[in-house]
Write a structure and sequence with these properties.
heterodimer, A: 169 residues, 24% helix, elongated, B: 406 residues, alpha+beta, 17 helices, globular
Chain lengths: 169, 406
């Protein structure tokens, strides 16, 4: 581990004193991995103590097809400090049937639509979200298309939609 | 101008008299793309707006899992189709950062020139169509004339006007010619003239100023908390530009200013966009002067020494040589990692979160679209404005539905 990486880990260990976490680094990207129960307190500390004032992105990865993967879903939070341009990726893991995370809308307004999109595509539920429903796909759509067990060619799209005849419309 | 709400929203709004609901879109000339707004109105005063999106959702991110890093560039083209090459540059920037490829100097300079041309391309359309929506067609036509020149520049370089698919992992599809350089320098020389002509029609047009000043205000705190980036954030006083703060390509070697404003209203956003075009011209001029010669493909990509086409088409050895360099099983190894990388696209921070499975395609490729994050800010910006301000605010955010829904 390079010197600056050691300094980086030490800095975050002092900020996230009360949280158990592991770190990893790839090129210039630092990652913090926490348990899903500690997620909200970690994000809160990062916002207040580490100056991560902007939430850039929330997304998820389905590890179903990865050999040797232990957990099914990885939820990714990309954070940014607008003053210092420091970036940080926070990862947490979820497994079926307990696909629930606390919402981050209380910390960043940007989380609103981003969390709805993650639900739309992966079926991960964000508890406490003020307006929790699908974002891109129609209400009543049964599947979560970015999961790896959903085929690329789709399934059930056409017959899911009601047929409106000219007389009815 | 936004008005103070006459009365705070009562608990049961359905009981108040005079409230009505208006469906704006999905097909409406002023949305320009397919998106729907459900507006709750008190007379002409907008009390609330609920965006309904997803009409253009076409599963781009799912397609990224079956197409390889070079093939997917044809799809990212179609996200923000107002500035297609900016998406391509952002996509291959992320891929190259994941694989660890350092571009050749010529490639970097050419991509910088294209990125800035695309910024002009995008801002011209954004400002032009909004003026059209607010009732002025003249500036719009001037702007579209200039956009046509940029299309011609793209066509000369890549063979395609619109969906150029010009970048490749570690380089570019073709090298540019002397002719292309002449076209770009002609464009930047005549652009200043057009800009000066049109500037009076835009920023000094009294009707335009009155329709946009003080409308759709976004405060600095809301911009940061809402994740706003690019011109939208800079118009609200967030001094941030990835080109300066996290330089990529050759932006650290070029001299340019980051345009900011404190207003936070629609007018500031148009002002920032207009002035950014001048900075882009400055960047292109410097980059053209410094444009180095040399190869366009980086070492180790397997494409740095493609045999020339005459050899490929006329001899079997040349064809075998070409085949050996181009086939997928000759492609470079990719580390088993994940990476977020972003560029400053005309609309804001356009990033890709890439997860690799070791092969030459992504296991997951998440697009971080600026349009989506900006459109989420729309309801809070429009509350308390008039119905006619909806098009001004919508235009100033530059929502591109293909990027919004992917």
């Amino acid at each position: 581990m390079a010197n600056e990486d050691i300094a980086w880990v030490a800095r975050y260990e002092s900020i996230l004193e009360s949280v158990r976490f592991t770190t990893s680094t790839f090129r210039d990207q630092h990652r913090i991995i926490v348990a899903s129960g500690d997620l909200l307190s970690t994000l809160g500390l990062l916002k207040s103590q580490a100056g991560m004032d902007m939430l850039i992105d929330i997304t998820a990865v389905d590890w179903l097809e990865r050999e040797g993967a232990v957990d099914r879903f990885e939820v990714v939070y990309c954070l940014l400090n607008t003053e210092t341009s420091e970036r940080l990726v926070v990862l947490t893991y979820l497994n079926e049937p307990d696909l629930k995370l606390p919402t981050a809308t209380g910390l960043w307004k940007a989380a609103d639509w981003l969390e709805r999109e993650v639900y739309d595509m992966f079926g991960i539920i964000f508890e406490g979200h003020p307006n929790f429903k699908r974002l891109l796909l129609p209400e009543g759509f049964a599947s979560f298309p970015l999961r790896k067990d959903y085929p690329v060619q789709g399934r059930g799209e056409r017959h899911n939609f009601p047929v409106i005849t000219r007389a009815k419309s | 101008m936004p008005l103070e709400l006459l009365a705070p929203a009562t608990e049961d709004e359905s009981l108040r008299e005079g409230l009505w609901t208006l469906n704006f879109g999905p097909q409406h000339p002023a949305t320009h793309t397919t998106l729907r707004l459900v507006l709750k109105l008190d007379g002409e005063l907008v009390l609330d707006a609920e965006p309904d999106i997803g009409f253009l959702h076409s599963g781009f991110e799912k397609l990224a899992e079956v197409l390889d890093f070079n093939q997917y560039v044809t799809i990212v083209d179609r996200m923000n189709y107002i500035s297609p090459m900016a998406n391509e540059i952002a996509w291959h920037h992320a891929v190259e950062k994941l694989i660890g490829i350092e571009l050749t100097p010529r490639s970097k300079y050419l991509r910088t020139i294209f990125a800035e041309l695309m910024r002009i391309h995008d801002h011209l359309l954004c400002v032009g169509t909004c003026i059209l929506d607010l009732g002025g067609a003249t500036a719009f036509l001037y702007f579209f004339n200039e956009r046509e020149r940029i299309y011609e520049i793209c066509e000369r370089a890549s063979g395609q006007r619109f969906h150029t698919s010009y970048t490749r992992v570690g380089g570019l599809l073709y090298d540019v010619t002397e002719d292309w350089i002449r076209m770009v320098s002609e464009f930047i020389n005549r652009f200043e003239q057009t800009y000066n002509d049109v500037n009076h029609l835009v920023l000094k047009n009294r009707i335009f100023v009155e329709r946009t000043e003080g409308v759709g205000v976004l405060s600095k705190d809301d911009a940061i908390s809402g994740g706003a980036t690019g011109p939208v954030a800079r118009a609200s006083g967030v001094v941030r530009d990835l080109r300066r703060d996290e330089p990529y390509l050759v932006y650290d070697e070029l001299d340019f200013d980051v345009i900011c404003s404190n207003g936070g209203d629609c007018f500031s956003r148009f002002q920032v966009r207009m002035l950014e075009m001048v900075e882009s011209i400055k960047i292109i001029r410097q980059a053209l002067e410094k444009l180095p010669s040399g190869p366009i493909f980086a070492e180790g990509t397997g494409k740095e020494s493609l045999p020339n086409k005459k050899e490929v088409y006329q001899s079997i050895e040349g064809l075998i040589h070409h085949f050996e360099t181009i086939m997928p099983n000759r492609q470079m190894p990719v580390p088993l990692e994940s990476m977020y990388a972003a560029t400053e696209s005309p609309n804001g921070e356009l990033g890709y979160y890439l997860v690799s499975d070791g092969s030459f395609k992504s296991y997951r490729a998440r697009t971080r679209p600026p349009s989506l994050v900006h459109f989420a800010l729309f309801p809070q910006m429009i509350r308390g404005c008039m119905l006619s301000d909806v098009v001004a605010v919508l235009g100033s955010l530059n929502i591109i539905a293909a990027e919004l829904d992917r």
